[in-house]
Amino acid sequence: MNGTFETEENVQLQHLQSYLQQTIIGQPGLVERLLITLLADGHLLVEGPPGLAKTKAINELARGMEADFHRIQFTPDLLPGDITGTDIYRPETASFEFQPGPIFHNLVLADEINRAPAKVQSALLEAMAERQISVGRQSWQLPKLFMVMATQNPIEQEGTYPLPEAQLDRFLMHVRVSYPDTSAERAILKLVRGEALQQDVARPEQLISETTILNIRREVLQLHMDDGLEEYLVQLIRCTREPDVFDQELGRWIEYGASPRGTLAMDRCARARAWLQGRVFVTPDDIQAISHDTLRHRIILSYEAEAEGITTDQVIDRILQTVPIA
Predict the structure, then answer these.
(1) How far apart are CA 232 and CA 228, in angstroms?
(2) pTM metric for this prediction
């Protein structure tokens, strides 16, 4: 037995991944992270310059599933009710009726989330954490299949409201995307010309249902993780909290480490990656492959590290080099 499997659900996800890679050219990492987030029942924060198919990615994901999609453009004048919905007065019945907002969709894109003030950000992040929204005295449940992908533009800082660390922690992963290479750029030209001529890439033959995704999430949680590997994961998190114990340089660079949400995020993401690759067990490569995206927004650097120009990714590289695999 080689520890691999190929179920109907796994084949469907492979077809979906292939479809996304044909339509989101030059961003294989973003495609994989989207699917990992979907299977790990979390939310994704994507940071990168404009025009890198961030919006297109989640839109195409919805096209390959039996799921509805809605895009919310965050602006400084946005109100919490514009996201959650609000009570509407009906004169004919002399009563208030709740009108659901765009948050009541399976897949939601919060475009340029840092352009809206803190009150609006909080309304969205509360929905993400609690899977419900409250208006007046009533609470309303969100769909069981619910995922938010938020984007941030790192170029423009004027007129933006940076997300506090406690709110960033609610995102399963923080992914950074960059420009495609030359060959991918040429492929994008051909794809866009074909789409303009209505020559779309064929959608997956079988759209993935909500029931299938929920079943896969249960399978992901049941994947085998060796006790030693689980200890390795916990020690990686401990290294962000007690860096002096592991390495003096890390002790100078790290001000605050990852919360228990970081531990849970690494566990779920490593399992989801293993499942996507058709394995019934998690390997050290799975944990290391998702470490940057699950820890990047959970580690706060010291003033000394920032003064030296040390980045969070460099700190995570050092953590992976320092902590031995159990």
Answers:
(1) 6
(2) 0.92
Which DSSP symbol is given to 109? Answer: E
The length of the chain, given as a count of residues: 326
| Tens-digit pLDDT profile for residues 45-96 | 999 888 888 888 999 999 999 899 999 999 899 998 899 988 888 888 878 8
Distance CA 163, CA 11 (A): 38
| Cα gap 263→295, rounded to integer Å | 9
Q: Whose CA is closest to 47, among 297, 265, 220?
A: 297
DSSP state of 37: H
C-alpha span between 34 and 298 (Å, rounded): 19
Q: How far apart (Å, rounded) are the C-alpha atoms in residues 40 and 22? A: 23
Instruction: Tell me how crowded residue 266 is: count the other CB atoms within 10 A of its CB.
Output: 25
Please give the distance of CA 239 from its chain centroid, rounded to a whole number: 23
DSSP string, 152-201: E-SS--TT--PPPHHHHTTSSEEEE-----HHHHHHHHHHHHHHHTT-PP
Asked whether the predicted pLDDT for residue 138 surpasses 90, the reply is no
Specify whether the CB–CB gap between 16 and 64 falls below 8 A: yes
Give pLDDT tens digits for 148-203: 999 987 776 666 788 888 788 899 999 999 888 899 889 888 888 887 777 666 67
Q: Are strands 107-111 and 69-73 parallel, antiparallel or unpaired?
A: parallel
Residues 49 and 152: their CA atoms lie apart, in Å, by 8
Residue 1 banded pLDDT, cuts 50, 70, 90: very low
Is residue 25 within 8 A of residue 188, CB to CB? The reply is: yes
Q: Which of 52, 57, 30, 54 is nearest to 180 (CA)?
A: 52
Q: What's the CA gap between 139 and 120, in Å, rounded?
A: 18
Residues 238, 259: Cα–Cα separation, whole Å: 10
Q: Which domains are assigned to the chain?
A: 8-196 (3.40.50.300), 223-322 (1.10.8.80)
Q: What's the rounded Cα separation, in Å, for the pair 87 and 99?
A: 6
